[in-house]
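Form 12-C: Joint structure prediction
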Amino acid sequence: MVPTIYYVALSAALFIIGVIGVLTRRNALVVFMSIELMLNSANLALVAFAQARGDVGGQVLVFFVIVVAAAEVAVGLALLVAIFHTKHTANIDVISTLKG
Amino acid sequence: MELVVFIITAAVALTGALAMLLSKNAVHSALFLLLNFASISVMYLLLRAPFLFVVQLIVYAGAIIVLFLFVVMLLGAERVEDEHDQLGRWQQPLALVLAAALVVEAGYILFRGGATAAQTPVLDELFGSPEQVAAALFTTYLLPFEITGAILLAAVIGVVVLHLRVQAKVAA
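Section 2 - Result
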């Protein structure tokens, strides 16, 4: 069996890559993908801990996270499409006002 | 044996994530993210979560990545970063410094060694089987499961309303 700490280390590495993506990339879609990557790394840690504790609750929590992530992606991408129609860009340096 | 599979899969996952971060084209980013999601689903198999393996493949690799690809191609936003890069030359180095701080923090916590793993419980054959996950989902976590339906409904309504507004603005 692979030690849990390995999974947690991989999860931390993926999370940090996601953070770097959010901080450095300017394409709103890539920023969004980085957020998905962070959600996934947290899920991986949750499943690893579920196995380490012998408790299936962690897997159920990951299921809920996946549901919320799916809803979030649908709404977020619809928002991006709406912003793109008014601003004609997906660069988050340009999109700096709330008013459409 | 399991460790070998883990190392290979972890390498693929990290490669996918890094390539997602570094590729200039958003379509390539989405495809590398797909690689990452697929390798994480293999991790779920290693962690005895076959139900989440299937859910990960269907929802993330199937639905979410396809949605991303559709939107990127629909908007033609593959390379928006090339056009405007006038703001904040200092942002990128600062972001890397902050990320390095995060790496140090994570490394410290991982290698501190204080949190030694508790005695790993002996897992029975059934652990993580879809039956067991479903039993927990429909008994202990029944209320959150039903709230999930409300969240999905709210997302559907929100997307439709946003789309209607865009259409009205385009028509006007």
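Section 3 - Comments
Chain B has a mean pLDDT of 86. Residues 142-171 of chain B form the longest helix (30 residues).
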